Input
Amino acid sequence: MRKINTPLDLNLIKSLKAGQEFSLSGTIYTARDQAHKRLVEAINTCKCLPIQLKGAVIYYCGPTQTLKGKVIGSCGPTTSSRMDEFTPLLLDNGLKVMIGKGGRSKEVKAAIKKYQGVYFITYAGCGALLAKYVKAAKVVAYRDLGPEAILKLEVKDFPLIVAIDANGGSIYG
Output
């Protein structure tokens, strides 16, 4: 399995092809529906964003409570289509990489191609296993959202599959 590191540069993103498998190391951010809604509201009202979107990797995940002695609780992917209404604007504002599970709308697929991003999937139903790839976790925004707060994660060899590539190729057809 090929290893890649954040930040992913545009040349690397453009070289990825749907169906390829990778392991990712570096910084990623968790964000689900409510965090996405707040990010979009901040963009629309010209407020400062709590994270830098340019080149960011967002993982659609709301981890469970962290057990004593662990870095993070179970942290499997959530259904990505729940973020579809927010995704084109975030891509327009610099987001390049998303991680989740399941298919995306035709609008998101078109936006990924337009803004030269990439959508990865990871193993659903394996949140406890995926937690083993997280080496550090820290809430960086929207703490009041609980498990939907934005967390900054440091991951090592986090397993991914390219689901939609920057050229519009898709494992979903």
User: Anything to note?
Assistant: Residues 64 and 73 are 5 Å apart (CA to CA).
